Amino acid sequence: xxxxxxxxxxxxxxxxxxxxxDEARQKLEQGGxxxxxxxxxxxxNMFIETHPGDTTGECFSSARxxxxxxxxxxxxxxxxxxxxxxxxxxxxxxxxxxxxxxDSDIGHALCLVYTIDEDVLTFEExxxxxxxxxxxxxxSVDWDAEEFDEDDEFxxxxxxxxxxxxIDEDEESEDEEEVEDTEEDEK
Length: 187
What we know:
Blueprint: E1 5-7, H1 11-29, E2 37-41, E3 45-50, H2 56-70, E4 76-87, E5 90-101, E6 106-117, E7 120-123, E8 128-134, E9 165-167, E10 178-181
Parallel strand pairs: 1-9, 3-10
Antiparallel strand pairs: 2-3, 2-4, 4-5, 5-6, 6-7, 6-8
């Protein structure tokens, strides 16, 4: 059995992270492609922005720019995409999220592993923690120097997958949250 990992997240970041995982899961269950997206939160309000692109670098850059533009107005973000993780059972499909809070230069990466068998999706019960990651809020990072392979299909995490994840927060009643979908302006 894998060691249980305790991840300290604020209540807001936890809600936004689980919201993003649920959105991605629903999209895949409906048979659609999961276009990478960010969820930006400013307290009780969440805003979704999609990041279509032909390469990992294009999607990542688009997400970073959206977070950077909203930096003063948001408390946290989640960047969500469909990818792969290496496990004891080999490479597996996963919904991957990278999330961070405004007050931290460190982000967290989590995943929800799933399998596809005869067009039936089966998701793990809980997300797994992949580790710390760079935060789009970290102004010391030279994002233009970050490189991505043109063929990279979001295979950013090579660490061994941890099986259990526990979010270290008191459970409080879930308030309904207002979600506003926004569309990316094309120029």
